Amino acid sequence: MAFSRKRKIKFSFSDLKLPEMRSLWIFALLVVFLLIADYIFISSPTITKLTVFLFMGILIFWNNLKTARLNQETKNTSGRLNDIVKSLSDGIVAYDVDFKILIINSAAEKLFGIKKEEVAGQYFGPERVREARLKLFTQILFPSLAPLVVRRTDGDGYPQVIDVSFSEPSLDFRITTIKMSLPDGKTSGFVKIIHDRTREIQLYRSKSEFITIAAHQLRTPLTAINWTLDTIVKDSSVNDENKEMIKNGLAASVKALKIVNDLLDVAKIEEGRFGYNFENIDIVKFLNEILENANVIAKKYGLKLYFDSGGDRSIILKADPNRLGLAFSNILDNAIKYNVQNGNITVKIERLPGKPYIQVSVVDTGMGVPLEAMPKLFTKFFRAENALRFRPEGSGFGLYITKNVINRHGGAIWIESTLGRGTAVYVTLPTDPSLIPPKEVIREEY
């Protein structure tokens, strides 16, 4: 443990020039005046007066010296902080609770195309968005005025992070708002850190466009290969030995096409254009149909599927049946592929007490997930080591796509697992349509 040591205050004659020493000089002049008066008329209390004056002078000197040094340190610290703020590449804007602009750095001036003198010391309100020159600056201070805002943090606490996008001109900012507080805990103001992400987003979209074009170029010939091989397999003139070889080729081609389709889906999700068509669905009936299709594959692996609707014959909620079907199919596909021989899969629906949500759980008796792999399960390309050893083929896109689909529906997904004993996947979905996000957002991973 390190202990802080009090710094000793050393005196130098240059300290006498500090503004805080003026009271000492006035006191010294008063002492000189009284000494002259005593010299003219010397009285018995002179020594006592000198002692008192000397003691008072020492106290004044010491107090003024400490004050002067503290003030000087404050000025030096303030100067260093100002230099740091000025040199930052991100825009910095500080304002008090009445939206009076206290600080704006040079980066913010460049971002908004304004001068410090135009805004510093001024009070801002939403009505100033009408001023063409200050429109962008006002929209950043009051994000509700911006065309598109996406919250990146939950709750009302600080710091708060949001993404703000503009179309004309095309601009993308990430804004972090920090609260400033007084020693008594009262809010004194706020600091906004504005990071210009326009170039980053453009590069990210270019990357996604490249993947989309490449995947489309691959999908067309693969589809043709699949159709051709499937036709040959059905041809009765082909002998069994050749037919078996063709079936293996067809299976490999189908897997390759699935990876290409997954790549396309990922690119669309990242660009915020996966496309959703929401409608009212009966989630009980919906899941029952998905399980009937999955049961055909499960039987081949000797698995048993169980469905528990929690006593509800019907639960209506708003969803995109195609996208949500893709998500649950991915979850069930994993539960089947990584299960043990003669294992079980149990799907259960339940209403969350006092909340406008349902919870769907998919519990299997499979190999489980290693603890160190859990934080990465929903990232692109990731597959746990035991899954790779058991089934080397796979793209690692399934859970990434699933998570984004569930999030777009206003829900959440998480996984609990015990290695060697099985995995439980939990999905929550809102029964209140107002809890569904209004738009898709760009989901970048740099």
TrEMBL record:
Protein EC: 2.7.13.3
Keyword presence, Transmembrane: yes
Catalytic activities: ATP + protein L-histidine = ADP + protein N-phospho-L-histidine
Residue stretches spanning the membrane: 21-41, 47-65
Source domain of life: Bacteria
Pfam family, one: PAS
InterPro entries associated with the record: BphY/WalK/GraS-like (IPR050351), HATPase_C_sf (IPR036890), HATPase_dom (IPR003594), His_kinase_dom (IPR005467), HisK_dim/P_dom (IPR003661), HisK_dim/P_sf (IPR036097), PAS (IPR000014), PAS-like_dom_sf (IPR035965)
Protein name: histidine kinase
Organism expressing this protein natively: Candidatus Colwellbacteria bacterium CG23_combo_of_CG06-09_8_20_14_all_42_19
